[in-house]
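seq/struct pair 1
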Amino acid sequence: MTENAWVQCIAYFAAVIGFGALYGPYMARVYEGKPGWLGRVFGPVESALYRLSGVDPDEGMGWKTYAAAALLFNMLGVFAVYALQRLQGLLPLNPAGFGAVAAHSAFNTAASFATNTNWQGYGGETTMSYLTQMLGLTVQNFLSAAAGMAVLAAFIRGLRARETENLGNFWADMVRTTLYILLPLSLVMAVVLVWQGVPQDFKPAAKAAMVETVHYDNNGKPASTDEQDIPLGPAASQIAIKQLGTNGGGYYNVNSAHPLENPTPLSNFVECWAILALAAACCIMFGVMVEDRRQGWAILAAMTVILVPMVLFCAVCEQRGNPLVAALGVSTQAVEGPAATSGGNMEGKEVRFGIADSALWAVTTTAASNGSVDSMHDSYTPLGGLIPLFMMQLGEVVYGGVGSGLYGMLVFVLVAVFVAGLMVGRTPEYLGKKIEAFEMKMASVVVLIMPILALVPTALAVVSASAKASLANPGAHGFSEILYAFTSMANNNGSAFAGLTANVPFYDILGGFVMLLGRYWIMVPTLAIAGSLSRKKIVPAGEGTLPTHTPLFVGLLVGVVLIVGALTFVPALALGPVAEHLMMIGVR
């Protein structure tokens, strides 16, 4: 690790945590219906939306009603995005004249964007019209992120409530999240990105003169290819919310490695910062809403304790490079930030970002259920690529998606509290609520469904001829590509090992259902836990109560998260990245 790399990492986490400390209390006020001065700006819009839809924002919902509303709204989003893709050839704002997207690809993309996954088996700039990008994908980036944050707000209300069924109103939570939290930040970030050179227009593709002719006709003679098309369009607005909402779907095919989607070092820092910014703020918001900020800081500390070593380990693995390349006598010298050079594995990485920024982005995006990339994970060293994969396999609870990451981590908190209770022989409690059989059954569903959705489809793919035909690499790395794909979809992440051609019926259809189940089969049990807790009395803390804001509990929580992930996925990792690493260093 160079000095430049250390400075970048320290500045990055300081910016993320500092923002979370400032923005979290404001988010708590939003969910209490007190958005401050922004209420004067967007308040009339909020009131108009309630009147038009016939919603009473003060009407409380039990967990079943809240879950039904969330599922209905999200399924409507699936149908809307599917229809836009199938009909885009007949709709306006389509300067490239793109036709209908294939049915299997349209289903996969619709499921992907509605579930906050943003898995993309297509090239956005060569497949989607401007209208589909804006009305379909960008809108779902807002709504899917808002749905996760709304469920988090309901879960927090369940923890702090006393003998009530009321978890809040889903429709009011969605409107307030979008208007007061996501939209203002996205507007500011989009302006910053436009300033840095990201396109935001409705112009057709620009024409650039070619330096040399690169195509040939059937007779082997140079063809007339004097120009290259450079796709433009409303990119900045989608990129802002894709990062802030931990969506991750890129406007361009290579995502934030594209020079128009991420043109400068400043845009790279801002986009990477946005991956974790709201997830960190959610932790502080939680502490404010339960009236004990120590609880939020403890959870944020546990997440950071896991994340930082993973970032450093990935960076070190990439800095060490590939010994097989070194054995060939190929130079591995590379630019690493301003006026600095170092060796390492630069394959698949932008020279303008270097190894440190690439590793930081790769690990944070897979920790945070974002899935955007500024380098190609498929080109990482085996152990360097193992880290992004393992971060997803922890359940996307290390920061995680906005809302969904924290409510997933809170489920692990309940498991940790339960384990501690078993150790001392007393009924476990969290924030004054007894954790009993029903909560642990639902927590078990939340913890176990993701490994099932990741491992079972992986097993099906490795025995399916049509699935294996999509692989560009045989052996251990090919297995890693399949495992990464279904781990990504089951965790609603969206990143991929690019050596797998996934835009085929097998992966599109099976992956679409994996994404839907991975989102909602976890969301519904989480709301069931919230509903159960909301009906309970608050039990005063006693001498035997386990403090859940201390370093001891942070360590216990970290251990539970890592042990569950390790026990579940280590055998699969041994067949993929670990086996590939052993072959790389000559172990047979």
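seq/struct pair 2
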Amino acid sequence: MKISSKIHTTLIILINFLLLHYVVSSLPIRFDMTAENAFTLSQSAKSLLAKVEEPIRFDFYKTKSVEGVSPQIRMHIQNFGNRVEQLLRQFERASNGKIILDIIDPQPDTSEEENAIAAGLHGQSLPNGDRVFLGLVISQGDSEHAIPFFDWNKEGSIEYDIAKAVHEAQQLSKPKLGLVSSLPLKAPPAPMMPGQPQQEDQYIITELESSFDVEVIEPTATELPVGLDMLAVIHPIGLSESLLYDIDQMILSGKPMLLAVDPSSLFFRSQQQGQMGMMGRPNPNTSSDFQRFFSSWGIEYSPGDAVADPNIAYTQQGSMQPAWLIFREDNMSQDFLPAAELNAVLLLEPGFIGLNEDSELDFEPILETSDAAGTVNGMMLQFTQQGALLNQLQTDGQSKTVAGMLSGKFTTAFPNGKPTNPAETEVADDGASEEQDSDQLYTGESNVFIIADTDWALDQFSIRRQNFLGMMTIQTINDNLAMGTNIVEFLGGSQDLIGIRSKGEESRIFDRVQALEVEAQKQYQIKLQEVEDRISEVNQEITQLATQQQGTGLIVAGPELSEALQRLRENEANLRAERRVIRRELRKDIDALKWKLVSLNIGYSPIGLAIFGLLFYRMRKNKAL
């Protein structure tokens, strides 16, 4: 074949390839190869769109030309904007014509930029003074909702944010959620001290307020506000009898409730200061209970015992914390819709709950430990090192339930009627009290979600706040907030939003590497604790010898003391040697696995091409023969 013919053939192949690429990219056909279908609309989103009756307009403000930043940041912003646009087009196609999408480029000093600012979109300021817009305005009739800026740190929740905005655009009013909590989830209206900055709400409040009208109820209140659609009780401490009675009646009326108790609140343990902290007394707010209701419902819960589990323990920087538990897919009920798509829920020193055989209610376990879990005394957690907990576990070979859904026909926790206030004067005998008693509910169908931990709701254990281009962004570090909002949404809101909330939220981990680390960490902690115990015994012996040899205030290092010191040095050397061996073995297995994966990723393409070329050559050769 002539050289010119080869060149023409090559050009024709390239042109055909480009045309084929253009045609294929123009077709509305997509294949999502991710494990969780992160780039495909969920059935919940499609169900939500199927309920749209009136047309909805999507005005997507996306800055196409980004200047004044590094090429890496420019490419990151543009690629992220393209992914958001592709997702919006999926919404448009799935709506059967009910969604009208308009892509708008708000160039500087244009009417489009003014419209974006007027709609409440937040443009990111660049060093050259320009702004980058990446927000959405959803309008239906007179209702308008805006997503000020799509956060690339929360790319997995973009589908939920869009679907939620569609849902809110069709709502005339939000359901009313009552919140009773001893934790400072809601920031005070003014700084505690003059000159201090205004505190922020815990982010779970921000999440709930987007879907609910949240009304905070102080634990010292004597009654619930009227008109509540559901209730959340988190770390109940010191609630009055009259408030408990109102909670009882609300549950029996069919209103759902989220209940969180805790045998060992890390927040209040960290707040333990002053005289009580110096005297070693426990903070009275550390443990919470709901005993009056638990006894009525048949719930078994010990407010003094926490759960530890080395199989699902949280590990950070080579240190295992057996009472900090990470619940993944294997430890979650996949049949329970709010937990079906969660990846990792972190609970800190949780308790455990169960249902006794005499109860007539149904209890569905949602979060469960492995069968290696055991119980530890909650008060000892603040005095015991995390490694020593492994030797204190009281295991029975059965998993522990730390969260579950209680449903069925509830019985009142106040069989003797509404409690009376001793401070009140006697009520006149005019029949008013009998009329009040006659209004009491004694049974009723309802749903109560119970979780034996409260620290999961705090920002320090669930999110990171980051400043990017002058705007504070939120990055979730686990699915704690997704779990809480999922459950509240499931109990009192739109169930169509639940299956969307946590899609692709967390980067995937190497399960095999994690298993190697956990196994090595378990061995490391046990051996380390054994050596530390031996060192402690030697130290006690040294102290006794030193006390016996005190004369004129000087300590004489006799043979026994020298031998004891030598044993201490040998034990310390053994400890260091054991650490080196364990870490070397851990790294050897992980590095070998890493090398195999890297070799496979690098080599599969050229190896496959070589095999294809060899097969093609043999086919041509056989055909020629």
